[in-house]
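Working notes for the structural subgroup meeting. M.R. asked for a predicted model of this chain before we commit to crystallization trials. I am recording the input and output together here so anyone reviewing the notebook later can reproduce the run.

Input as submitted:
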Amino acid sequence: MEQLLARVLQAGIPLWRAYVGLQLVHPQLLAMGYMWRRGEPVQEVARAYGIQFTPSYIGSPMQAVREQGRMVRHRLADLTEHDHVTLHEVKADGGVDYVALPMRIRRDGPMPIVTFATDSRTGFSDEDIADLERLVDLMGAVVEMHVERNVAETVATTYLGRQVGQRVLNGAIRRGEGEEIRAVLWFSDLRDFTGMNERRPPGEVLELLNNYLQLVGDALAANGGEILKFIGDGVMAYFPAEDALFLPIVTGQAIAAARQLITDIEAANEARATGGNDPLRFGIGLHIGPVTFGNIGTEDRLDFTVIGSAVNRASRLEGLTKELHVPVLASAEFNEASTVPMKSLGKHVLRGVPEPVEVFTLPE
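Returned structure, recorded in token form:
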């Protein structure tokens, strides 16, 4: 954008300010704007959901262009008190003439909007406006490629996670394609979720589940873990270890994430108690082992996941937390690699595992 608009200046168009507004497919943001001012670098302006219902958008030139699909122009010297605040702000900054244009691209959905302003005392000429209209048409093909790439990256990251999403975008999309990695595996589960579904209205359960999963995701992300998938109220995550030398670091990260989640849930339960609600209880299973990291499924519907006996053990350890009444259980393999001393709870039978195994929990 900086290089393009520098060329516009070289062509003799008295451009002072330009803005490109792109509607996004994003879980938190409605749109992203890119603001350029002459002599300054481009700035990104994030637009959160809900902005379309605020005075900053309602009645603005952006809304008029998007809804009418045509150019909107304002000679800023002629503004009245009824004109939108955006126009008055541009005028106060030194703007003289303002034009907003739709950028038509092939992708369905809200069209991008481009605005231009000049501080030239004579404003834009008719030739300038015609050139800017042609410029926007030419920009559309390039912007469309960026939009499509952004949508692909956002969807992949949102539904698959950052690392797995990037693997898929880089071409790891064939069924049966995968690699063996060594990782710390995390399984966590919310207690009595089935009972909550029976006792609570669906909307309340959905809000509770999202709040709980946000705490899990925050604890994992803050300590190097990545969610692989949500299984109802359960979370399957991993902490990658490139080789055995990294295992003490990675196990420490997993323990830190578990402790953060315990602390955050305790705080949440204090707030729930003031409202007369039951406390949230959960369990975490931690294990180390080799797993196959790759695609499974049908020829045209795939799931990128981890499989292997280590996955089964982590899941069984999480289930055992219910019987032993502790929030965290780790395997002997995890404890052996960890530099954090853990407390042995003796040997126990894990469903599907032939021999009893020693399990460990966090020290008191």
